[in-house]
C-alpha cells in the first residue's frame, strides 16, 4: 500500500513538472502583437494602448495569460471598462509599477477578479492623469475593484493592514484631489474592521448554538433517565 502511494506521488510530481514546463512563455509587447496561447509574459511589459480595430480578437489572445513578470502598461485608451486581463492571477515588475494606467480619460472599471498577487518595485499600481481614481469616489463598484487591487498587493507583501504604499496617483496640480488616496485607505481600514467584527460575531454565534445544542441533549438524556426510573418504581 505504501509503495503504491509512493509511486502515485512520484507520477503526479513528474506530471506536474511536465505540464508546468510546457507553459508557453512570451516576451511582452503591444497586446495586438502578442503570440497566441501565451501563459507567462516575461522580460518586457505588456502594453495595451490606443484603440484596437478588433478588440475581441485581442482579448481572446490575452485570455490564456496567467502570469505577467514585467508589468502591464495601459495608456491612452478610451475604454470605459478594462477587462483585457480578467484571467490573470499574478502581475509583478521588479523594475517599476506592476500596473500602470496613464491618460485613460474614460476608464470607469478595472475587471481583474482572478488577480491574487500584485507587486512592483516601489508602488504596485500607478495612476498617471487617469480617470479611474476619480471614478472610485463616485461608484461603489469601482471602489470594490480598487480594494481588490489593494488586497492582491497586500497578499504579495504579507501585509495585514491597508497601506498607502501600494498606490501612487499622479495628477495635474490644479485638480487638488490628493485627498482621494487617503479616503481610499480609510475606506479599506473600515472594511477590514467590519469584516473582522463580522467574523468574530459569526464565531461567537456558532459557539452559542453549539452550547445550546449540548444543553438540549443533556435535558433529553435527563428526561429519559427520569422516565426509566419512574417505570422501574412502578414495577
TrEMBL record:
Entry keyword set: Membrane, Signal, Transmembrane, Transmembrane helix
Membrane spanning stretches: 179-203
Domain Receptor L-domain: 37-129
Superkingdom to which the source organism belongs: Eukaryota
Endpoints of the signal sequence: 1-21
Chain intervals for the UniProt region annotation (Disordered): 205-235
PANTHER family linked to this entry: PEPTIDASE_M1 DOMAIN-CONTAINING PROTEIN-RELATED, RECEPTOR PROTEIN-TYROSINE KINASE
Name of the protein in question: Receptor L-domain domain-containing protein
Amino acid at each position: 500500500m505504501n509503495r503504491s502511494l509512493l509511486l502515485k506521488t512520484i507520477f503526479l510530481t513528474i506530471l506536474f513538472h511536465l505540464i508546468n514546463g510546457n507553459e508557453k512563455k512570451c516576451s511582452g509587447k503591444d497586446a495586438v502583437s502578442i503570440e497566441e496561447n501565451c501563459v507567462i509574459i516575461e522580460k518586457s511589459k505588456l502594453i495595451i494602448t490606443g484603440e484596437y480595430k478588433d478588440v475581441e480578437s485581442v482579448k481572446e489572445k490575452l485570455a490564456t495569460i496567467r502570469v505577467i513578470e514585467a508589468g502591464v502598461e495601459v495608456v491612452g485608451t478610451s475604454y470605459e471598462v478594462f477587462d483585457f486581463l480578467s484571467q490573470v492571477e499574478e502581475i509583478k515588475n521588479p523594475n517599476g509599477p506592476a500596473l500602470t494606467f496613464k491618460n485613460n480619460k474614460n476608464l470607469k472599471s478595472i475587471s481583474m477578479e482572478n488577480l491574487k498577487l500584485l507587486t512592483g518595485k516601489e508602488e504596485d499600481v500607478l495612476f498617471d492623469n487617469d480617470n479611474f481614481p476619480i471614478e472610485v469616489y463616485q461608484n461603489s463598484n469601482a471602489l470594490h475593484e480598487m480594494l481588490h487591487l489593494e488586497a492582491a498587493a497586500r497578499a504579495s507583501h504579507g501585509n495585514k493592514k491597508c497601506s498607502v504604499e501600494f498606490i501612487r496617483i499622479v495628477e495635474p496640480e490644479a485638480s487638488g484631489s490628493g485627498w482621494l488616496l487617503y479616503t481610499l485607505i480609510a475606506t479599506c481600514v473600515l472594511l477590514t474592521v467590519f469584516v473582522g467584527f463580522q467574523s468574530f460575531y459569526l464565531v461567537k454565534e456558532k459557539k452559542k448554538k453549539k452550547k445550546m445544542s449540548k444543553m438540549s441533549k443533556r435535558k433529553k438524556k435527563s428526561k429519559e433517565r427520569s422516565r426509566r426510573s419512574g417505570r422501574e418504581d412502578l414495577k
